[in-house]
Design goal:
Layout lengths: L1 H28 L10 H11 L7 E4 L7 E3 L4 E4 L1 H4 L4 H19 L2 H29 L3 H38 L5 H41 L1
Parallel strand pairs: 1-3
Antiparallel strand pairs: 2-3
Helix pairs in contact: 1-7, 2-4, 4-6, 4-7, 5-6, 6-7
Amino acid sequence: MLYLLVIFLPTLLLALYASFKVKRTFAKYAEVPVSSGLTGAEAAMAMLRSAGLDRDVAVEPVEGFLSDHYDPRHRVLRLSPDVYSGRSVAAVGVACHEVGHAIQHATGYVPLVLRNAIVPTASIGSGLGSLLIVGGLALNLTGLATVGLILFSAVVLFQLINLPVEFNASARAKEHAMSLGIVRGTHENSGVAAVLSAAAMTYVAATVTAIVNLLYYAWVVTSARE
């Protein structure tokens, strides 16, 4: 009960607020057209072309709401319907953000390289780590719980590395969107910044949640040893 009230509930509320904020901000600026008239897909191609990546990275539509992502294995930029076909400040902002990841990949941006390297371990840690901790404590096997704690630490490391990756991609998006004329004027530029800032809050919320959970797990496992 103490964990629920003091730790879990605040992080849950933070995550819910971040999700609400990004959806609300995207919806707001999805109603603001860009004066360039470009769709998200066209904006992405313009930014890729400027970076010399238009022949190396494909742009494809993908189902889902805000399911936009860059696939480094296949070098494909996948954009959700609202972003791919949208001619709004929100659409081009999100599209350019994802191109930022493609540019990071092409230039060997170190935090992205580190993030991609830790993905397999973090994926295992996010599921198996908690299971081993709970199972180890239930069976009074603190060694097993410690292994779970180590695995879960990879999740926190992933989230910490992910922050500069996402912030950098947003910085690239804002810079290129303005310099290439994808967005024009203070109002459109501010809209892109607002959309990307709201998205950044979700990454921060995920990182805070992971850190708090790790600290709680560490406290529980340490207490079990005593």
